[in-house]
Amino acid sequence: MMEDFRTLVLYRTSHGSTKRYAEWIADALNGEAMEATKKTSPEWMAKIQTYDFVIFGANINARGMNGLPEFKSALTRVKPKNIAYFCVGSYPAGDQPKMEHYNDNFKPGELDEDAFFYFRGRLDFIGLGFLEKRILGAYMKKIEKMYPEDRNEAEASVLEAYYDDVDWSDKRTIIPLVKYVRGFMTQEQKDAIEPIAKARMAATAQREEEEEAAWEAEMQRREELHKKNVADDEAYKLKHMKKKQREAYLAKKAAEKAAEEGDDEALLNIDETIDDYSDFEDDKE
Ligand SMILES: Cc1cc2nc3c(=O)[nH]c(=O)nc-3n(C[C@H](O)[C@H](O)[C@H](O)COP(=O)(O)O)c2cc1C
């Protein structure tokens, strides 16, 4: 009887993008994804030997793969049948960052470079912790000080994400890793996995679509709320102005709007002495 091919995807993440990659990979191989924290180590260490293939994925933190020393030390006690690694960072995907991260994390001869993969994740500067902001901030300041023409592609694109939230995660980039693992399966095992993997990938895609739609709806709701607050504020101001002040204020607003729409002459009609509500606040009708 044919044995199922079982894949275990262990991961470490600081902000979730490595988890997403681990789940995409687990779907595509009909495997199991599990966070490999210190706390859960007895559990995942016990699993390592019972799977046909173990993948360890981690986010890159100041050039090092998160949790890799612990994982390597676990491997001195439990030996997986087959293993591959992936890391997730903010540099653009490509051979050069892959090899840099490979050389930073493995000694020469320690790991076949074909079993190492690099994916690009997400950088949400606002969501970082205090220490992370300090470390990354120092690196960004260094890039900021460079002449733009001296920045390489990676530096320029990481700088673009500074103070922002940029997600470069790309599901299609897992294909080489998925192919690599499938290379260890028999044709029968591949055939057995395929329909289940397809169904899992479709279910995840559907869930992600729904999450994205819910997120967009929430953003829309907040924007509407903001517009309403601005309008309410404006109405309140107008209500508390004297007639003349109100007329002057409305004339100024109309001139500003016309100027915004390209009527340069309207600029002349903007009376800078009529500023905001605070000028009128104390006036009593
Ligand atoms: C303090 C800090 C240091 C980082 N160092 C690197 C790095 O050396 N190389 C890299 O490619 N990305 C680096 N990054 C970017 C993260 O690896 C990237 O945002 C990744 O997607 C985070 O994965 P996670 O969401 O699973 O935690 C760093 C991020 C932080 C916060």
CATH architect. name of the largest domain = 3-Layer(aba) Sandwich
What Rg do the Cα atoms give?
Answer: 28 Å
The assigned structural class equals alpha/beta
Total count of helical runs of at least 4 residues: 9
Q: Percentage of helical residues?
A: 40-55%
What is the CATH class designation of the largest domain? Alpha Beta
Shape estimate: elongated
- Average pLDDT rating: 90
Distance linking N and C termini: 92 Å
| CATH homologous superfamily classification of the largest domain | Flavodoxin domain
Number of strands: 8
What is the string of helix and strand elements? EHEHEEHEHEEHHEHHH
Notes on the protein architecture:
The chain is α/β, with parallel strands linked by helices. It has helices spanning 17-28, 41-48, 68-75, 95-105, 130-145, 153-160, 175-182, 187-239, 243-260, and strands at residues 7-12, 32-35, 53-61, 64-65, 83-89, 116-120, 122-124, 165-167. The protein contains 9 helices and 8 strands. Strands 1, 2, 3, 4, 5 and 6 form a 6-stranded mixed sheet that branches. Strands 7-8 form a two-stranded antiparallel sheet. Helix 1 (17-28) runs antiparallel to helix 8 (187-239). The termini are far apart. The structure holds flavin mononucleotide. Residues 13-18, 59-63, 88-91, 121-123, 128, 132, 135-136 line the site of flavin mononucleotide.
Quick structural overview:
The protein is α/β, with parallel strands linked by helices and 285 residues long.
